[in-house]
């Protein structure tokens, strides 16, 4: 079994003062690549789980979303950081689907696909709904922002979160993955 750092996207990896519907609207946070590189090197699978209801609502297409994610991976790769998998809920926010956070569906899907040990994995997000999805899936949780929150740790940004995860999960005893 593997352990993963499952990251929300908007407000965690990239800025989200405005919705990101096109690749050129994606701007990484300054220390995001460094954070992901740290997680890569520590043997965590790095996954992104993102609510993208804008697809269901018609603000962007599935192709736009794919292009945004290609761009994100490209920008991260330039700084030596790797995202191993991305899952998105593209349903309308009112659809009642099992994947839109705070529901844990995307985390369970990742766990099945990658044989994840969820109790040794981490969900990182900037909203309560991210923390709730993590708790419902049985992961540890990191909230980026100032609390109060139910998360196991409150971080300033993704690098702070990654440093805590590596400290906290360093001794889990699970086999490390090849970086
Ligand atoms: Mg977010
Ligand atoms: Zn969904």
TrEMBL record:
GO-annotated cellular components: cytoplasm
Keywords (A to Z) from UniProt: Carbohydrate metabolism, Cytoplasm, Hydrolase, Magnesium, Metal-binding, Zinc
One Gene Ontology term of the molecular function aspect: metal ion binding
Superkingdom assignment: Bacteria
Any one Gene Ontology BP term: carbohydrate metabolic process
Active-site residue numbers: 8, 10
EC number: 3.1.3.-
Contributes to substrate recognition (site feature) positions: 100
Site (Stabilizes the phosphoryl group): 50, 101
InterPro entries: HAD-like_sf, HAD-SF_hydro_IIIA, HAD_sf, Heptose_bisP_phosphatase, Histidinol-phos
Binding site for Mg(2+): 8, 10, 126
Cofactor requirement: Zn(2+); Mg(2+)
Subcellular location: Cytoplasm
Annotated positions binding Zn(2+): 89, 91, 97, 99
Pfam family, one: Hydrolase_like
CDD domains: HAD_HisB-N (cd07503)
Subcellular location, principal: cytoplasm
UniProt family annotation: Belongs to the gmhB family.
Name of the protein in its database record: D,D-heptose 1,7-bisphosphate phosphatase
Natural source organism: Alicyclobacillus macrosporangiidus
Phylogenetic lineage: Bacteria, Bacillati, Bacillota, Bacilli, Bacillales
